[in-house]
Write a structure and sequence with these properties.
single chain; mainly beta; Tachylectin-2, Chain A; five-stranded mixed sheet; four-stranded antiparallel sheet; 3 helices; disordered C terminus; hydrolase activity, hydrolyzing O-glycosyl compounds; hydrolase; Glyco_hydro_43; Beta-glucanase
């Protein structure tokens, strides 16, 4: 989430402030009314087990709220286990300066494990903050955001990349850590500006051929940069590709379907939500084409604010029809960042042979709003689509999203 604005972005500052305040007020009200009914996997309730309730408190198997903000999922093939890494924000929210952004001191990267993507066991802080050394990148008064972990098949190491910054967001770098185990501990190596470019919101993507890439907001959030990682995933090559130049996009979440690459991004509006866009490319190195807002369902206010959340990751939906994914997003609460919520929703990609001439570009990718849903189960070889009673659309079907 950008806490820095360029001169071009400041041109509509007054309108942005008004819209942001309105969105944050709605988030506060929603958070207040959704404190009840936290999803607790310890409760044996057949009617609720396995269901996602986007925006509600989500508890781990110990009964504590999950702290994995701005995170991503690693599926470990050896153990058949999913690992969810994210910012551990279970501390007080404050402002470092009167005009500074809301923040929580760095605690570290939290890790949770699950076999079913619904019941999450807390594995601990796998990369901890530095309490005393003020010059260290992980010093508690600095910034650690958007940690992502990938596995290197050659070195057999688990490699974590993250956004590293100072309290004023002027360092704008990426940090790298490594571990022999998905549950850590991770050893922090160093930070860098990839090929000399500033780097803020970022992600990493591992392709089918084992190549991995760093994707990050750069040039003061004016554009997205993509750099291949080297063989051990501990640095970038000397190649940098510019994408979405001048579009002021951040929070990239990259995924692939049928040989085509997709990227969901958000605009730059601080902690306040804004309109998502999805982009498509034949090669991860581009060129990238923007194809519109993928959000479907709910009302206009929800759609243009990405259901009051911001993208962080997209993962394949296990056991479902081809082209089905889970869109992971954060519903930030700058009044109490530890109470920021998770918005997980089904995302579908229309197969190329189903893309009819004349249909608008946004129909290729859709993120569906559901108050309640679960990953489709298979019964007698057939997919059983189960959603809330207020939205009967199946994940594999496409409808035109209501536009602005």
């Amino acid at each position: 989430m950008a806490r820095w604005f360029s001169a071009g972005a400041r041109c509509s500052w007054r309108r942005l402030v008004i819209c942001s305040l309105a969105c944050l007020l709605i988030i506060q009200l929603y958070s207040f009314f959704s404190r009840v009914g936290a999803r607790d996997p310890r409760v044996d309730d057949a009617k609720e087990n396995g269901y996602y309730h986007p925006g509600r408190v989500w508890l781990d198997t110990d009964g504590n709220p999950i702290q994995a903000h701005g995170g991503g999922i690693l599926f470990d093939e050896k153990s058949g286990t999913n690992y969810w890494y994210g910012e551990y924000k279970d501390g007080p929210t404050y402002h470092a300066q009167k005009t500074g952004t809301a923040r929580v001191d760095v605690i570290g990267v939290g890790c949770y494990s699950s076999k079913n993507l619904w019941e999450w066991k807390y594995e601990g802080i796998v990369l901890a903050a530095e309490e005393r050394n003020e010059t260290h990148d992980l010093y508690k008064l600095k910034v650690l955001e958007r940690p992502k972990v990938i596995h290197n098949d050659k070195t057999r190491k688990y490699v974590m990349w993250m956004h590293i910054d100072d309290a004023t967001y002027s360092k704008a770098s990426v940090g790298i850590a490594v571990s022999n185990s998905p549950t850590g501990p991770f050893e922090y190596l160093h930070s860098q500006r990839p090929n000399g470019f500033d780097s803020r919101d970022m992600t990493v993507f591992k392709d089918d051929d084992g190549m991995a890439y760093l994707i990050y907001s750069s040039v003061r959030n004016k554009e997205i940069h993509i750099s291949p990682l080297n063989g051990d995933y501990l640095g970038v090559t000397n190649r940098t590709v510019r994408a979405l130049v001048g579009q002021h996009r951040e929070a990239p979440a990259v995924f692939k379907h049928q040989g085509v690459y997709y990227m969901v991004t958000s605009g730059c509006s601080g902690w306040a939500p804004n309109e998502a866009l999805v982009h498509e490319a034949e090669s991860i190195l581009g060129p990238w084409e923007s194809i519109g807002n993928p959000c479907v369902g709910a009302n206009k206010d929800f759609r243009v604010a990405t259901f009051f959340s911001q993208s962080t990751f997209v993962l394949p939906m296990p056991g479902a029809v081809p082209g089905s994914f889970i869109f992971m997003a954060d519903r930030w609460n700058p009044a109490d960042l530890r109470d920021s919520r998770y918005v997980w929703l089904p995302l579908t990609v229309r197969a190329r042979n189903q893309r009819y001439t004349g249909l608008p570009l946004w129909s290729r990718v859709s993120i569906f709003w559901h108050k309640k849903w679960r990953i489709p189960l298979r019964k007698n070889g057939e997919i059983d689509y189960v959603t809330d009673l207020h939205h009967e659309q199946r994940f594999g079907e496409q409808r035109r999203p209501a536009t602005k």
